[in-house]
Amino acid sequence: MKTTISKVSNYLNEEVTIGAWLANKRSSGKIAFLQLRDGTGFIQGVVVKSDVPEEVFQLAKNVTQETSLYVTGKVVEDTRSPFGYELQVTNVEVIHESVDYPITPKEHGTEFLMDHRHLWLRSKKQHAVMKIRNEIIRATYDFFNKEDFVKIDPPILTGSSAEGTTELFHTKYFEEEAYLSQSGQLYMEAAAMAFGKVFSFGPTFRAEKSKTRRHLIEFWMIEPEMAFTNHEESLKVQEEYVSYVVQSVLENCQLELGTLERDIEKLKNVKAPFPRISYDEAIELLKEKGFTDIEWGEDFGAPHETAIAESFDKPVFITNYPAAIKAFYMKPDPNRSEVVLCADLIAPEGYGEIIGGSQRIDDLELMEQRYEEHNLTGDAYKWYLELRKYGSVPHSGFGLGLERTVAWISGVEHVRETIPFPRLLNRLYP
Ligand code: 4AD
Ligand code: MG
Questions:
Q1: What is the domain partition of the chain in residue ranges?
Q2: ipTM score here?
Q3: Residue 242 in contact with ligand 1 by CB distance below 6 A
Q4: CA gap 227, 333 in Å, rounded
Q5: pTM of the full predicted structure?
Q6: For the chain, percent helix, then strand, then coil, each to nearest 5?
Q7: pLDDT tens digits along 390-423
Q8: Ligand 2 centre and the CA of 400: distance in Å?
Q9: β 42-48/85-96 pair status
Q10: Closest Cα to atom 11, ligand 1: which residue?
Q11: Which CATH architecture has domain 117-417?
Q12: Which of 223, 404, 416, 417 has most ligand 1 atoms within 8 Å of its beta carbon, as the pocket-test mutant?
């Protein structure tokens, strides 16, 4: 029976054939252990010299790393392997021989691995991270569908900037100037006025000259937007969503979390509600923690976020930042106009900001005032203003950065390992 590694448990004590690549191998005079992978999983194939024709044993003994094979064998339980099964091999057929595979079981430097990303993706660790990424995406669709959100796809090519003009990728749109989307938010606001509760999931681009473990040039964002929803109600959705995602990974990715040696005790605790502190309180906390220079009005950097997160064992919301350091569309606090109704969600363990969100300005006059202050002129923003003209309602939304979330939940150090083909400062290859 032809099957995949993920399905071998359906064929206990039966003979199956799988298409696979040789990930690794150990052999002695009498026995060969083939570490096989087929994309759906990893399994050990055991080839015993006395049980197979001599040519099959010789082939198994000499097969090279990443050679593609059809392997036939009996599925048996193996309590020592985390996977639980192994194959007692009866036949091996080579599909294509791989010669001098560059990524050997020995240690390689990061740049070498990044140059071979197209092959590095085959490794067990990278496989585990991508499976967790996949589970987060699955849980995201599950959560928002269950909550009656409509998936809406904003454009990638845009005429306007959502988050500020300095970090835009410019391109030509025939005769016009265009940009790659930094965020679908403005379009999602239009969509919320048409569908009530919406979410997007797509690539976004930032021409940021940042070279840190948290920054990608191209990253994927999940952006929900909700009509008739205030800031407080939006925070509830955020904490429910993040809890749902973490608990889904814990439930469905046990093997992968094990491969990554993730400390899952730290994740089990991630359940709503999450703690909240105001920007003002965060400034006080930072001063107590030795950041004596920080002053009200300054934005937080990675060391600040890490220090704040250390005081909590769950993700923490920092709310009500000064208006001056946040985007033009955020609604001022009605009791205190120098701060806005917004929050950043900071992940534990130094992974930094994973969500940025806010209530949006719904008043036409105030938005017109912001346009003047931020010099937002021309047709590109005309439509956005019109959303405040025809039945404007209180509305809020947020953006969750997928790669930072994957990094945190997987426990990998750097976001470059959380997206199949990372776009980084000075890296467009492969
Ligand atoms: O805080 P940001 O810039 O917010 C927005 O773009 C809003 N328009 C979202 C919204 O309200 N709809 O980005 C949101 C999240 C951040 O919290 C972070 O997780 C991620 O996107 N992010 C990045 N991830 C990787 N590399 C980068 N360069 C990132 N910049 C932001
Ligand atoms: Mg932000």
A1: 2-96, 117-417
A2: 1.00
A3: no
A4: 18
A5: 0.98
A6: 35, 30, 35
A7: 999 999 999 999 999 999 999 999 999 999 999 9
A8: 9
A9: parallel
A10: 398
A11: 2-Layer Sandwich (3.30)
A12: 404
